[in-house]
Amino acid sequence: MNDLTPLRLTHATSAASQEPVRNLSRRGFLGAASGALLLGVELPVDPALAQAEGAAAIAPKPGTRIAAFLEIRPDGTVKLLSPFVEGGQGINTGLAQTIGEELDLEPSRFVVECAPPGPDYAVVNGLRLTGGSFSTRSSYAVMRRLGATAREMLLRAAAARLDVKQDTLTTSDGRVVHKASNRSLGYGELAEAALALLPREDVPLKDPKDFRYIGKPMARLDMRDKSTGKATYAIDLKVEGMLHAAVQHAPHLGTEPEALTNEAVVRAMPGVHSIHRLPGAVAVVADSWWRARKAVEALKVAWTEPAADGLATVSGTFSSAAMLAALKATREPGLSAEAEGDVAGAFAKASRVVEAEYDAPYLAHAQLEPPSSIARFNGDGTLDVWLPNQMPELFQSVAAKVAGIQPDAVRIHSPMLGGFFGRHFYYGSSNPFPQAILLAKATGRPVRVLWSREEEFGMDAVRPLGFARFRAALGADGMPLAIQTVAVGEGPIGRWFSSIFKAPVDSSVVEGLDKKPYAIPNRRLDYVKVAHPVTISFWRSVGHSMNDFFYESFLDEVAQAGGKDPFALRMALLKDSPRHATLLKVVAELAGGWKRGPFQAADGTRRARGVSMASPFGSETAAIAEVSLKDGEARVHDLWIAIDPGSIVNPAIVKRQVEGAAALGLSATLLEQVVYEGGTRQARNYDTYPILDRDRMPRVHVTIVESGAPMGGIGEPGLPGVPPAVVNAVAALTGRRVRSLPLAKEKLSGV
Amino acid sequence: MQTLTINGTRHDLDIEGDTPLLFVLRDTLGLTGTKYGCGIGQCGACTVILDGQATRSCQIPVESVGDAKITTIEAIGQDAVGKRVVEAWVGVQVPQCGYCQSGQVMAATALLQQNPRPTDGDIGQAMTNLCRCGTYNAIAAAVRQAAA
Lengths: 751, 148
Description:
The complex is a heterodimer of chains A (751) and B (148).
Chain A: H1 5-18, H2 29-33, H3 47-52, H4 66-69, E1 70-72, E2 78-82, H5 91-103, E3 110-114, H6 135-162, E4 169-172, E5 175-178, E6 183-186, H7 187-195, H8 223-227, E7 243-249, E8 257-260, H9 263-267, E9 272-278, E10 281-286, H10 289-298, E11 301-303, H11 320-329, E12 335-340, H12 343-348, E13 352-360, E14 372-377, E15 383-386, H13 392-403, E16 410-413, H14 433-443, E17 447-450, H15 453-459, E18 466-474, E19 480-489, H16 492-496, H17 507-510, E20 522-529, H18 544-561, H19 566-573, H20 578-590, E21 599-600, E22 606-614, E23 620-630, E24 633-644, H21 651-670, E25 676-677, E26 680-681, E27 699-704, H22 722-734
Parallel strand pairs in A: 2-3, 7-17, 15-16, 19-20, 24-27
Antiparallel strand pairs in A: 1-2, 4-5, 5-6, 7-10, 8-11, 9-10, 12-20, 13-18, 14-15, 14-17, 18-19, 21-22, 22-23, 23-24, 25-26
Helix pairs in contact in A: 1-6, 5-6, 6-7, 13-14, 18-22, 21-22
Chain B: E1 2-6, E2 9-13, H1 21-28, E3 47-50, E4 53-56, E5 69-71, H2 80-92, H3 101-114, H4 120-126, H5 136-147
Parallel strand pairs in B: 1-5
Antiparallel strand pairs in B: 1-2, 3-4, 3-5
Helix pairs in contact in B: 2-3, 2-5
């Protein structure tokens, strides 16, 4: 999603933040939702309209109608209906800081909930989604204006109430104060009158030098609840009279249940209500989930046969190894994603050519909360669905289709997410909510579907397996004259959002290979689409999660071929880009200076360092990893990461997000791969799909550089630099270049 | 019929004996602070304290609990060590998504009840629950703070 950033983000923040705030009469959310831009995997939309105008073309202007966002309560607390869903990234707190700054209300007095579907919340350039590291950067200006406009209305209401001139009033943390008469009114007392006023269009925003909350490491709003078990996730919800469903999915994606051979036995098991065939699955509905699960796992199902062979479907012989072989064997010319200078000419006069192929595996999200969903049909023909999701309006449209009703008859409830990392977009059969809807319809009762961890590992939509082929031309001085790259595969943008984003080159396949800051005059990047038969997805940092590993590892190979130190080569190639050069310098300083090694550390271990840079999601990063080898494994001791997101709202949250993203990147580097053999996934739980544990967690040192560039993303950018920094260090230790992740595939040894 | 003592209260439950304690807590008793993560004792999201020991409740059939006293995250504030752990968790701002944190807090509480001054090695041995958000360093810092 990264390359949508400049165009769309600029449009969103500037247009929306300068747009006058309107105070349209409050429309019902369900009514309003029908006018929303319904992003359609399955819905036809007019892409021209979507691209040109987005939901901004439809009243109300997203992010401007105060009553849609703020409920100022009598006790002076404020309920904020957020366009975004909280899943650990800290967006609820960031929004409270941003609005609270302009509204003049302590952020801790906000209670934040994810808003229901509605056009007011389409603040990501006319769309609504929590992803692409867009939340803060897309809404920052809009939310400040919302807070400032609301404050002005409160002041105006207070002036009328106290019968004084408005300019004699000030505010102080939730109260309007008239100093001259020593009188004050709480926001809660003024809210009703204030919201009846016509909003002003020209309320000035605060001077950033006066910020009290923005830019400060304020405490997160959800810490106590999350430390005492009180935070509520989808899996914790209960609805009166609901039944519990457990499912068993087809072993091969795309096959269907044919016959159930022991249905009567299973029906007689304790608590069983009913047995159902679903698309690609069977389900047992029972009075408790454990009983449903035992029953569904006892169910003997004959499935239709998958295709015998091939990669067009998840066939009986499909494997991740065969898929990778197919990507590697692809030699057809691609679509041009980037072309600069005279690449052929540079290769013709090269004194040396370096070539390499890189790949990265399918990955699972492995978020700790297994997915679940509750569906309830109501007497009036409406449907309520509770489900983890990153895009309420899209889920509303799909739920309506599954239920056979209109979208405005579907209420979507979006609880806090027990981790997401890209897991909770709409990925067809990788989502449990269609099953919940079908089962609620079949049973006439509210039904909760919960996937066991094993079913989740079987059905999770995976980060695509990816492959890139590089060639570099080096001059006599050892400097790169040209880099030619071919990226082969398929990305989640093309798979799931092609009706909106029609560009022939899938940005989610090439991001991280394109738009590099390095002064390499001749560049060519091609994209060859080879579709995966498996369900592919967004995964924290998307294409960057592998492409920056590919490119930055290859750049180290170029450095080595040219006899250059990898850090020095990067610095030389960044001579025209002060923002990046600064960041590289900053990360080296953070790490106590650059040294590649190998060297002996104080504890006697033999260590080396690797360096990398990345430009993900509108931010810039530089990373250094310090690594040793132990028992054939890479041990990462320290990660130093410098991030320049332009400007920030909460440095404490930023640092933790970068650290968390780095941990996930390291997990993928060291351990993770979803392996298919014989058309089925091999790992079904954390015992066979190990993820980073405490023992492998390095120290992570993060520093933030606020260059003042347009605000970039935070949730994902900490990840992409980690795999190449670690693998570059491993190359220094072993003298061998690992071009295929994860490192766990081979036993490493030093030289 | 199974009898369980949870957070100091006795419960008589008409339930199959092989049901994992985790699902009795969550689905029968509504104590949803204890989380289901993997069901095979790998992730630790379901950690409770059973007679003083951090225990993965997904691996405990209710029939095997007997007279053991079970403490869940819902009663964390009733224990002096548990309270300190929670304050440290809030102070260090440990959680991100938070889903694994009930289990982490329970594991930390059991550790500090048994070993009030754990070394980093002790912390590493006791705190084996998984966190997909990568809060491990913050967790270790909070355990050290609660021990101090």
